Amino acid sequence: MRATSSPTPTEPEEPCARCRGAGYLVLDVPYGHPDFGHLIACNCRTAQLLQQRREHLHTISNLGPFASKTFANFDAHIAGVARAYARARKFAEAPRGWLIFFGGYGSGKTHLVAAIANEVLNVGYTSVLFTVVPDLLDHLRSTFGPSSEIAYDERFEQVRGADLLLLDDFGTENATPWAREKLFQIFNHRYNYRLPTVITSNRKPEELDPRIFSRMSDRELCEEITIIDAGDYRRTATNQRLMAKQPDHQRRSGRRDV
Hints:
- The protein is of the alpha/beta class.
- The chain has 9 helices and 7 strands, in the order ββααβαβααβαβαβαα.
- The chain has 2 domains: 30 residues, no CATH class; 177 residues, Rossmann fold (3-Layer(aba) Sandwich), CATH 3.40.50.
- The N and C termini lie far apart (59 Å).
C-alpha cells in the first residue's frame, strides 16, 4: 500500500525580531523620564495600521465599483479627451482647488474622476470620497430613517469636510428645494475653506444653480473649466479595441467583423 503524503503545513510567519510579535516596544529610559513605561508602536505595527487605514479609506470612499478606473487604462488618444486627461493627471499629483468637467454622457468624465480618486488614495491621502450626486442625496435622506446606523449630521460632515470630494453627475439630481439647499451648503462650505473638489456634469453651465456655478467660476479657486467634446468615449474606446484585434488588411479597408 502506497503511503500518501500529507500536505505540508504552512510555515508560520517569523515574529518581528524587534518586538517579538508584540507590536509595541517599551523605551529603554531611566525611571523618572517622561517616556518611562510608555508603549510605542513598533515599525511592524505601524505598517500594519497604515495598511488597515488604507483599506478603510478605500471602503468609505465608495470606489469599489470603480477600482479598475485608472489613468493607465484610460485611452487619452481618443479625440477630445487629451486635455481633460492631462488636467486630471496634474490634479491627482497635488490636489488643490476645484476641477470641473463638463461633457455629454459617455465622454469619459467618470473614468477620469475615479482615476484621480484611486491615484490619490494609493499615495496615502487622508480622506477621499467619491459619490454620484443623486446617490449622495439618497444617502443623506436615508439617515432620517429609524433604521439608519449613522446620524444625518455625521454623514453630512463626512461629505462636506472630506479632504478630497469628487462629485459625479452634478445636475442630474431631482432638484427639490431640500436637495438644492443641501448641495449649496456642501459647495459653499468647500468654497469657503478652499477644499479640493472635483465635479462632473453633463448639464450646460447656465442650467445649474447660479449660486453654485458662481463659485465654480471663481478663477482663483478653479484653475479652469474643462469642456470634454469627445462624443461617446465608451463606444469609441470599444471600437478602437475591436479594430486593434483585427488583421492589418481588415483595418486598412475599414472592415469590422460583427
